[in-house]
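Example complex used in Figure S2.
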Amino acid sequence: MAKELQLMKGNEAIARAMIASGCDGYFGYPITPQSEVMETLMAEKPWETTGMTVLQAESEMASINMVYGGAATGKKVATSSSSPGISLMQEGLTYLAGAEIPCLIVNVMRGGPGLGTIQPSQSDYFQSVKGGGHGDYQLYTLAPASVQEMYDFVFDAWDIAFKYRNPVLILSDGAIGQCMEKLYTRDFTPRWTEEERRKNAPWGTWGKPATRGHNIITSLELDSAKQEIFNHKLQAKYAEMKEKEVRYEMLNCEDADYIIVAYGSSSRIAMKAMQMAREKGIKVGLFRLITLFPFPTKQLNELSKKVKGMLCVEMSAGQMIEDVRIATECNIPVEHFGRFGGIIPTPGEVLEALENKIVK
Amino acid sequence: MANDIVKPENLVYSRTKVLTDATMHYCPGCGHGTTHRIVAEVIEELGIQGTTVGVAPVGCSVLAYNYFDVDFQEAAHGRAPALATAIKRLNPDLNVFTYQGDGDLAAIGTAETVHAANRGENITMVFVNNGIYGMTGGQMAPTTLVGMKSATTPYGRCVERNGYPLRITEMLATLPGTYYVTRQSVHTPAAVRKAKAAIKQAFLNQQNKKGLSFVEIVSNCNSGWKMTPVQANKWMEENMFPNYPIGDIKVDGKIAEGIDINRLVVDHPLSVVNK
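Predicted assembly (635 residues):
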């Protein structure tokens, strides 16, 4: 299938991108608002075309551990869920990070805490970029703001995951997952051949030939001195990601007096608020984060030396703002505006917050 | 002198090459070492060292991956059957086995165990049941016997407080996804030979794509039980075996001859440990 214009839901885009990007296996468990990911995969029957395996697991704990088992053989393996299910996966995520297993996890966020609501939210920022599970680890975290990015980021995820031997998280939300938009699909990337798998994942547990020792996938090291050395190695990897893999988008920031900082659905709303502000003569720019980890600390710091204030817009009680404040080092006022519990703010509300909290 | 003796024609036994040179950390008298050996011997005899992937649990055998010279994954506590499910589904040509203890397989990992069995995953599961959490210092396990003392049942397991010992092996035998379910032990040479044959059958079933094969090894924990190895084996025969009877439970997808699954699952009386 060549590059083709289609109309589809964000969740469906995730599923179709998995098939098209040469994913070997998907393991999931139903949860609103992302169930269309597995439903699309089951309807598409990729096992008959690309050979991709799709399995409905008995729980999110099982599905993330199936990701562990499958991905540790050096194959491209993914799962998806929504906030409460992602909470159940935290054990698996820290083991995946600790065992340095490349894989893809998609979180289509809904409101919390607890069972919360099935409506969109962005209140899993802390969980995504501050650990979530135990121990010092990071997930490379991409925040799509459109159905097109839901699709494209799946392709990008495999590159990063295998380059760094690290799990990649696509942090989306119920609005992007459920909305229908146009998107350009890509040519199919075939699944890796056996030779490619062995070349791309020499560390994988794909059966020990006589030519090498046995490969072990583990996150256990009982010798503390060795575990500290391993922790340093992980930190060096995360530092390299911070250096090389930060992604963001700046709109109208050149002449801006004020900046809205946002990601995902909020950045779409913020874009409209920015236009409305400009129509009123307020010079507003939008800094859209694409990677939440690594965080664009340097870029926001530089920007903070040129503008008068920043408004963080996030569908949460204020999580990302902590990192924006650290990045901007109190150079300027930085405030938060958010609706949460499944409520999506309007552009008017964002503009009002900008005028009341920042422009004044 | 020694070199004169070790000639091929004099060699009656040697360690299988599927075990590494690493010194095992298991307590003297523990059944894990023997169970490891027979699993490794089966892998060598079947000529599948290069196509076998094992999954280690959390518990005493957490470091199993250091002892088997095959590719190995270390699972989170209880999740080995989930890992094995994906390893096998994505790599149908690999021979996949899990190696778990009773706390891992029958408590924290119950869901993964039951559902892997119910899906009929084409894998081999080795389950070592010694009725106790050995690694963490001898706490009550799901398989701890009624009246049996442990670090968290210092006055003996009490049904009112702790419920009944879980016979998960009989439970799994009732599921259509299991093809071969057996319970063995490794405390005598004869038992070791039978257990090895069972493990070999379990791997052969996988090669023949028959579905899930499950081998329970009723074992001891002389450290956790606070006995000498000899005492522990005797105690195991007198107390563990009546509750966990040795022998095949399901063969070729059918409940084994002489086994009344209703008796095992529902009515089999639970004996209280000897004081």
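The CA atoms of residues 84 and 90 of chain B lie 10 Å apart. The mean pLDDT of chain B is 94.
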